[in-house]
Design goal:
This protein has 132 residues and is mainly α. The protein has 5 helices and no strands. Helix 2 runs antiparallel to helix 5 and helix 3 packs antiparallel against helix 4. The longest helix has 26 residues.
Amino acid sequence: MPVPVPDLLQMTHPAFTFVECDRPISENAVPVYLDFCRCVTKRFEHYGELDVTPPDLFKLLAKSFETVFEDDDPVTFFPAYELIPRLLEEFEHTIENMTHAFQDSPRVASFYRKMAQKLRQCFEHHIVGDNS
C-alpha cells in the first residue's frame, strides 16, 4: 500500500509551515507545534504499524515548555529547564529512527530532521537565549 505523503507529513496541520520557516517558533505557538510533531510521529507509527515514540514524550515536552515559559519558581523551573534537553535528545533520536525508513526518499527524511531541528531552535532561542 503506498503511503500518502500529505497525510504522513500532516500537511494540513496548522503548524506544518513552521518547519520551513527560518524564524523561531513563538512561545505561543509551541503547543500547536508540539501537537504537530506528535501527529507526524503518530502517522508514521500508523503507516509503519510500529511504535517509535517513547511513552508520554509529548506530554512531558508540553509540560516542561509550559513550566519554563510561565513559572518563575526555581523549584519547578530548573527541573523543567534541565529536562527539556534530554527530551529533545529523545525526540531527535526518534526522528532519526524514522528517517531510516525513508532512505529512498530524502525529501521525507529531510523534513523529519528539520522538524526536530525547529523544536531545538525554539528551546535555544526562547529558553537558552541564543538569539542568532
